[in-house]
Design goal:
alpha+beta; Phosphorylase Kinase, domain 1; 457 residues; three-stranded antiparallel sheet; Transferase(Phosphotransferase), domain 1; 3 domains; single chain
Length: 457
């Protein structure tokens, strides 16, 4: 497929829509720049059903080179020839273990297959086949960089919102990556299929919270992993209800003390200002990209399109709820110091918006109920013990529960509750548990324990 033409800023290298008069990243005038036709192809891996190009009005042209998705960043026409000439047929066996089921994605850089791994109990996998023989020398250099990034980073990461790489190998003309096969669609596809052009607010908040989970995991690695390309096309919404972060082609590890990145990498509108060679990208860069993505999902319009609407005085629709708009504004601040300081902070604010005004009360009430469970069990066991003779089996079991099991369970719950106090996400839950357990202990001590020992307060 052909990627729409773009204007590339001489000052910072950012890709801009053809109708742009100044660079969205550095505000440099684009009047003297003539667009150069550049075409590429795209493979969307990991999922069932090849999508094709975006139907959104502004093309999301990647500034980077991206081997795995064959994204627009390669800016070159694939080598001529029959793109299907070396496509593996369904039923064929690759590497003496992978049985090819069907092609699920195809482009000038290669093919993505659905296959079964016969050495892993017929596990369903996705196999990316990159056709090196069809790439130009420049494309091979770019492809090598992207391939190595994905293998070196993703193969060492394990998280429920990340596809796992199981193997990688090559032959004379191809590179292969074997990874999880995820049934589902990209979030961009869901956006395109939405009846009113935007996703429901509840779904947007759920997607945002799940992305925060995986970003917090990446950012707390040693050193931190910066994804650098958060956008709807790089989020997979699996049939299992999970949102997966895909395509690590331009991800990098944070290098302390480095002044700036080696080159401008990202997607216009979703890329933070620092991604254009100003300073080094950090975890704040991904927070910016997530903020721009949330805005796109809730409005149905891409960031550059919203900028055009704002410039022409058009009213944005649908209206974003005020708390979410404030969060998005904070996340997309040009100054990194004004953005939320972690993905965890974003998660907490998204949860607060999702739960509403009294969400905190429900979390605290849940803690109270959990903390009261040992006391309720103790109460029932004591009633049974007192209502039966000393020689009965029920009395013996009740006594064991009172003096052994319940104290142990209470201690475990106490430790869990204290640990929750150190987690911003679970602090209210832990506080409720501790309060309920403290009150229960005082009541039990006064009403039940002392009388059992023949003593009273």
């Amino acid at each position: 497929m052909t990627i729409p033409l773009a204007l590339f800023c001489d000052e910072c290298g950012a890709a801009n829509p053809l109708q742009a008069t100044e660079c969205f990243a550095c505000q440099q005038s684009l009047e003297q720049i003539k667009p150069a036709p550049r075409a590429s192809t795209s493979i969307q891996p990991y999922y069932r059903g090849y999508r094709g190009t975006s139907s959104l009005k502004h093309p999301t042209t990647s500034i980077s080179t991206n081997l795995i998705t064959g994204s627009a960043g390669s800016f070159a026409t694939p080598a001529s020839g029959d793109s299907d000439s070396d496509t593996l047929a369904p039923g064929s066996l690759l590497a003496n273990r992978y049985s090819i089921i069907k092609v699920v994605g195809q482009g000038g850089f290669g093919v993505v297959y659905q296959a079964r791994d016969y050495k892993r109990r017929k596990k369903m996998v996705a196999i990316k086949q990159i056709n090196i023989s069809k790439l130009t020398p420049r494309q091979i250099i770019d492809a090598t960089d992207s391939y190595n990034r994905e293998v070196s980073l993703l193969s060492k990461l394990q998280h429920k919102h990340l596809p796992r790489i199981y193997s990688h190998f090559s032959d004379a003309e191809h590179w292969y990556l074997v990874m999880d096969f995820i049934k589902g669609k990209t979030v961009e596809e869901y956006l395109q299929e939405a009846p009113d052009g935007a996703l429901p607010l509840k779904q947007v908040l759920t997607i945002g919270m799940q992305v925060c989970d995986v970003l917090q995991y990446l950012h707390t690695q040693k050193p931190a992993v910066i994804f650098r390309d958060i956008k709807p096309a790089n989020l997979m919404w699996g049939d299992d209800g999970r949102v997966y972060l895909i395509d690590f082609g331009i991800a990098r590890r944070f290098v302390p003390g480095q002044a700036r990145d080696t080159g401008p990498l990202g997607s216009p509108g979703y890329a933070a200002p620092e991604q254009y060679g100003v300073v080094q990208t950090t975890p704040y860069t991904d927070i910016y990209g997530l903020g721009a993505t949330l805005q796109t999902l809730v409005t149905g319009k891409e960031p550059l399109e919203l900028q055009d609407d704002a410039g022409s005085g058009q009213v944005m629709a649908p209206q974003i709820p005020a708390p979410l708009q404030q969060l998005i504004d904070d996340m997309t601040e040009p100054d990194t110091r004004k953005r939320p300081q972690s993905a965890n902070q974003v998660w907490l604010r998204l949860r607060r918006i999702k739960q509403g005004k009294w969400g905190w009360a429900w979390n605290f009430l849940q803690g109270l109920l959990l903390g009261a469970i040992p006391a309720l069990i103790f109460l029932l066991a004591t009633v049974f013990a007192r209502s039966h003779g000393y020689e009965s089996l029920l009395f013996t079991l009740s006594s064991i529960a009172i003096f052994c099991l319940i104290p142990i369970a209470g201690l475990v719950l106490f430790i869990i509750a204290v640990s929750m106090l150190f987690s911003p996400r679970r602090r209210l839950l832990g506080s409720g548990m501790l309060i309920a357990m403290t009150l229960s202990f005082l009541i039990i001590t006064h009403q039940w324990l002392w009388p059992l020992f023949g003593m009273r307060l």
